[in-house]
Amino acid sequence: MGQLDGTVAIVTGAGRGIGKAFAKVYAREGARVAVVSRTQSTLDAVVAEIRSEGGEAVGIACDVGVREQVFSAVEQTLSAFGTVDILVNNAQGFGTQSAPRSSTKFMTVEEYPDDEIEYIFRTGAMSTLWGMQAVFPTMKAKGWGKIINFSSTSGILGTTGNTAYNMTKEAVRSLSRTAANEWGQYGINVNIISPTLRTDAFEAWEVDRPEFVKALRENLPMRRLGDPEVDGGPLAVFLASHGSDYITGMTFMLNGGKMMP
Ligand SMILES: NC(=O)c1ccc[n+]([C@@H]2O[C@H](COP(=O)([O-])OP(=O)(O)OC[C@H]3O[C@@H](n4cnc5c(N)ncnc54)[C@H](OP(=O)(O)O)[C@@H]3O)[C@@H](O)[C@H]2O)c1
Asked: 85: domain CATH number?
């Protein structure tokens, strides 16, 4: 028996990194999973991996920065699997629409350009809102639903050079608490994960700010950078299952003790 038997999960940004890890772990626990990101080839690879382990998944190509595509991804999930119980809003874009990047470009507050702020906010905060709005009718009708959103210690601490990302990630936390307040009455939990885990995005960040990331690694209380699947999987399953039914609006620091608010 899997802890998520009979459920359907949508995981955005599931082509690699944390999203891919969560999608795989959910499938192992019995959820049918909609694997969402922009690149069809990586989606196909993740779906194939899940199927090779005996799980069920579909890949849905979607740019979460486009409202219609987010609603369409939820519609496609409903067509494929009939319902949705779990939504993980993990995708986050960087750069601009015409020149996307794999990670933040560090600039001071006074020099941060509007187009970059707009794109990062749209692909992080607006996309999260759209995903939540799209699954809400189904979750409300069921009287149960699990939404997991993503923040960052960078946003909580106001890490320098990271204006657009910090604004975005703190907006996601505020949105999550608001929805937690409004939707608790419908049995819908909205929680937030603030991760520090080894992924491509993290490694790109390390290239841009080697000293900062070196210090971070060396000062982590756990003295190692966590693995998305091994260290992130158990929390992902907990927040998607009945064990967390009485927990909502909370930020979970999945970060080896990096920050202890
Ligand atoms: N890793 C960390 O330590 C860390 C720390 C703090 C916060 N976070 C947060 O955790 C989440 C996952 O981070 P990660 O490190 O796993 O990132 P990652 O390795 O860069 O993976 C990002 C995923 O999102 C997809 N994606 C990017 N833009 C998208 C868009 N516009 N529409 C749809 N999919 C999109 C990418 O695939 P395509 O390019 O194919 O679309 C990829 O599958 C993010 O919200 C990030 O801000 C991570």
From this structure: 3.40.50.720
Instruction: Report the nearest-CA residue for atom 46 of ligand 1.
Output: 92
Of ligand 1's listed atoms, the one at least distance from the Cα of 94 is 28
- The tokens 């609006």 sit on which residue? 249
Domain encompassing residue 67: 8-253
**Residue 132 and residue 180 in contact, taking contact as beta carbons nearer than 8 Å:** no
What's the pLDDT tens digit per position in 116-165? 999 999 999 999 999 999 999 999 999 999 999 999 999 999 999 999 99
CA of 3 to the centre of ligand 1 (A): 25
Q: Quick check: is 3 in a domain?
A: no
> Could you give the number of structural domains in the chain?
1
**Rounded to whole angstroms, what are the CA distances from 113 to 28, 68, 110, 117?**
42, 26, 9, 6
SS3 assignment, position 15? coil
For residue 37, being part of any structural domain is answered with yes
Q: For ligand 1, pick from 16, 24, 116 the residue to mutate: most ligand atoms within 8 Å of CB.
A: 16
Ligand 1 centre and the CA of 221: distance in Å? 25
Amino acid at 234: P
247 to 35, 125, 161, 234, 240: CA distances (angstroms): 25, 22, 33, 16, 11
